[in-house]
Amino acid sequence: MTKCQIVPDSLTPRTITELGLDPARWSHVLDLCRTMVDNATVPALAIDFVRRDCGLEEPLLFGRQRLEDVPGTIRDDAIFLVASLTKPFVAMAVMMLVEQGQIALNERVRDLIPEMDATPNRPMTVRHLLTHTSGLPDMLPNNRQLREQQGPFEKFLEGTLAVTLDFPPGHGVQYQSMGFVLLSEIVFRVSGLRCSEFLRRNVFEPLGMRDTSLGAPDEWFEGESPVVDRIVEVVVPAEQQDQTDWNWNSRYWRQFGAPWGGLLTTPRDLATFAQMMLNNGNAGDLDLFSSATISAATSNQLREFRDVPEADRRARGWGFGWRLNWPAHVASHGDLVSRSAYGHWGATGTMIWIDPDRNSAAVILSTQPFERSGSRLARLSNAIAAAIV
């Protein structure tokens, strides 16, 4: 195949066959998408697919821009809140600092954030934060109160520095969104740039991800046709339904830019990033990450922790911010992707997987919370993987 440039507006048209997809099986993908939207399994759905050297000419979008809209009203430039798909981006910002020699993974967090020195979290390292082995909780005990008060990032940082660990660092695995609060702060302490700005300058702009931001800037709310109108409305979980001041669709949350779940982006921008990962850090003439960094970030790092339970090390691996495929887990990337696949899920009903063995990556974004859409997204993932020749 003729190599495609990675920037979104330069991908040249490719037929399904030229993409290495079976047309009949790809039709199953389209049928599933239409069915999920028509029967209201999800209000909105978007998919994109790339190989190392090319991808779909345009992402496929189905459904509603607003929850009260009729089907077929989603914008072709729709922006999605992708929740925990944010975490690999923050992790790769940290890995960029690692490959530049500005930090090392075994450095203690207290040496980078001195305020931690007075807390019981002293043995914690950057490596622990990136692999969910820190012992931190997923959310703070007063998470709801902080959001009700529209608390700033500094309040979440303060709480994370003081919270009691659930186990000593390196002695277990527990999904910990609050670890990404500390990783985001480390990016700031080392680079002098807030994580949102670091990502914009060093990742989003170089890759041409023009519609991606960790938190919506003020200018997105300005003008006669504000960018914020492009953000697809999400079905919120029960505990958020009456909380219009702080739920996923509120201005507060869209602007907060939570390093554990506040990324706003498009399926095409995510596919652009995935294609760079497939190409071992390269994007055309741009050498964004070294191949050593990509390899380390996407390999099972739990094998290095002797006190982590063997079942976790063997069957539920983590790279640095990237979750490896867990075939027997309810939140697997799919039943038909390769064992080497890696990616992430998001609570708003989103998924990305990158499969080096199949030379492919898929982006699946919906607006139905994962707890209600996860099994359907897994079926869609299977259909995409089955279509790869």
Q: What is the H/E order?
A: HEEEHHHHHHHEHEHEEHHEEEEH
CATH domain topology of the largest domain? Beta-lactamase
Tell me the radius of gyration.
20 Å
Q: Give the strand order, joined by hyphens, for the main sheet.
A: 2-1-11-10-9-8
* Major sheet summary line: 6 strands, antiparallel
Q: What helical percentage do the residues reach? A: 25-40%
Q: Structurally, how many domains make up the residues?
A: 2
What is the approximate shape? Answer: globular
Q: What's the total number of strands?
A: 11
Low-confidence stretches: 1-13
- What is the CATH H-level superfamily of the largest domain? DD-peptidase/beta-lactamase superfamily
Describe the protein in words.
- With about 400 residues, the chain is α+β, with helices and mostly antiparallel strands.
- It has 2 domains: about 260 residues, Beta-lactamase (3-Layer(aba) Sandwich), CATH 3.40.710; about 110 residues, DD-peptidase/beta-lactamase superfamily (Beta-lactamase, 3-Layer(aba) Sandwich), CATH 3.40.710.10.
- The protein is built from 13 helices and 11 strands.
- A 6-stranded antiparallel beta sheet has the order 2-1-11-10-9-8, sandwiched between helices.
- Strand 1 and strand 2 form a beta hairpin.
- The longest helix has 18 residues.
- It is globular, with a radius of gyration of 20 Å.
- The N terminus is likely disordered.
